[in-house]
Amino acid sequence: MRAIALAAGGRAETVHGAAGVGDLHVTAAAGRNRAFGERVGKGRPAVEVAAEMLAAGELTEGYPAIATAWRFARERGVVDLPWLDALNAIVWQGADVAATLGALKLTV
């Protein structure tokens, strides 16, 4: 998130502050984006999940936001975003969830 914010002219403090961390927490901990992610994570195609949620009147902004963020980063030369690349591959290219996430090199 930091790299994308900086590429857009934002400040790192915003991402690491209450607004950025709070938004990330709420998005991941509850709501429609979490429901979408859980369903896709269980192996259901993202397009199917998104259509089902839309038919139920549940808009999930995370679905199109992944593609938008991925394109935005590429247009600005931000390429070292392994989590965004993985999400884009899973959601928009139909990549296998376990294999794609398992291939990430995680560091602490």
Termini separation: 17 Å
Overall mean pLDDT? 91
Structural class: mainly alpha
Helix percent reads 55-70%
| Low-confidence residue ranges | none
Q: Profile the largest sheet.
A: none
Q: What shape does the CA trace take?
A: globular
Produce a short descriptive summary.
The chain has helices at residues 2-7, 12-16, 18-29, 32-41, 46-55, 62-75, 82-93, 97-102. With 108 residues, it is mainly alpha-helical. Helix 6 crosses helix 7.
What does this structure look like?
The protein has eight helices and no strands. By secondary structure, the chain is mainly alpha-helical. It starts with a helix and ends in a 6-residue tail after the last helix.
Write the SSE topology.
Elements: H1 2-7, H2 12-16, H3 18-29, H4 32-41, H5 46-55, H6 62-75, H7 82-93, H8 97-102
Keywords:
108 residues, mainly alpha, 0% strand
